[in-house]
Amino acid sequence: MSVYRAAQVRLSQPVRPELAQVCLPGPDESVLGKYARLREQLGAFHAFDKAHILMLAEQRLLARDDAVAMLEVLRKVERDGVVEVRAETAENMHSGEAILTRELGSEVAGKLHLGRSSGDLLAVSFRLTLRGKLIALYQAGNKLRATLLDLAQAHIETVMPGYTHLQHAQPITFAHYLLSMLSGLDRDGERIRQFYSRLNLSPAGAAILVGSEFALDRERTADLLGFDGLALNTRDAVWGRDLEIEAHAIATLMAGNINRLAEDLMLWSAPEYGMLECADGFCGTSSIMPQKKNPNALECLKGLVATTSGMLVSAVVVHKNPSTVPVFEWIRALSDHWRSYDELIDGTMLMDALLGSLQVHTSRMAQSANAHWATAADLAGAMVRHAGVHWRAAHQIAGITVRLALEAGRTPSQVDSGLIDQAARLFMNKPLSLDDEVIRDALDAHASVLRHELPGGPAPRRVREAIVVHQKLLDADKQWLLRSGQRLDAAAERLEAAIDALLGERRH
In Å, how far from its chain's centre is CA 125? Predict the structure, then answer.
């Protein structure tokens, strides 16, 4: 912080090295690598510096020659590498002023900070950086959703067991299962899109609390940085923290959805299930047991929710203090927080790649769906339709039938009218006399899937309808992503064009 925190200005001593090591620059590269020294936000500081200089010049708060000199230095920084050059200064949000001081002297560089504070420098860089992370996450999520749709399309007729309490419930299809996972990811996309509209508002010009008495053009700076408007209240723009917590909550929800998918796939890849298998490239083996094929990718994906939920708690704890207190706690936490988003983005792409090469053992799924009484509810339904008994009585008789069959060592395919009549007599002292063909149809898993035709059910007709709905949602989200990217690109072009015009005007 040598740019403005000099000994004998307000404080009588220079910064102690112990403080600098622990707090001011942040943990060094050996600890945090690319996340050290607010490295993730250095590009955002650079963009804000350029937009602020341009706005000051346009508002005649900065002499044109000074603005040109500053912008030429910053253009040179871009040629040399923004992140690398700024990181070397160890000045974090004030790295731009440090570079300009070195190149132009404090008489020129000292004009950069007019109307600004560390507060809006941090707030702007936070929103710009998080905006980039969210767009990358949204893009990865869209790709994963597309892969799930393709996989569902291929398995509309693939019958498998449905589970509750890890016990066989009712038959579904693999496509129906995949669409249930896709539904959560659709909501994740919606949450990101809605959150983006709240995030993409500019704190620039809010300074630290009350804005500035100088005639800054907040709208101009916002436009040059690709914001959709202003974070209006100057105190909230800098000190509001609900957006950060909301972002972590969204990431945790998405990681949780990916975790649930990974949990199921890992379970079903075990030999006892044997319903699917990850490609070898996503697996590991054992250093002692040569037969092992461990689903390493799925294990790693299950860990995402632990990281994101930890960062959510971290953000809540950091910001539990009086609303204008946590500054350095926040700065330190941000280093880990950016890593959390990057891990989720990478994990989303890993799940997409894994699903793209997933081996689905359809015959094993069908066999399992027919082997463990998953269609007992259908048998009860057949009793209601064909024997005229009410539902609860049918439910009880079907349950007795299953118990009698298990005690006799009989499988669902061996159930006949005689066994059901035995169960009916135990419950209500009279037989049902169901036709054996009705019983066989009721207990067939594939036929069960076909019967469940309510909207959103597993019947192929309904699954095909659902795929169309999901595809429309995905197409709309892809269009939103395209438009958002185009707006950001256009803003970046406006900034560079305005700088070019200023530099060109000076040359003439």
Answer: 20
- Average pLDDT, 10 consecutive residues per value, the chain (508 residues): 72 72 57 74 97 98 98 98 92 94 97 96 97 98 98 98 96 98 98 98 97 98 98 96 96 97 97 94 89 91 93 92 81 87 94 95 97 96 97 97 97 96 97 96 97 97 98 98 98 98 78
Q: Which residues contact 454 (CB under 8 A, 6 or more apart)?
A: 462
Altogether, the residues listed in the chain come to a count of 508
Helices (H), 155-241: 174-199, 218-224, 234-239
Q: Are 240 and 83 in contact (CB under 8 A)?
A: no
3-state helix vs strand vs coil in the chain, percent to 5: 70, 5, 25
Complete domains list, the chain, with CATH? 17-114 (1.10.275), 124-368+471-490 (1.20.200.10), 376-443 (1.10.40)
Angle at 100 between CA 44 and CA 80, to 5 degrees: 65
Is there a contact between 270 and 348 (Cβ–Cβ < 8 Å)?
no
Q: Tell me which residue has tokens 């600890």.
A: 31
Residue type, 407: E
**Cα 64 to the center of its chain, rounded Å:** 44
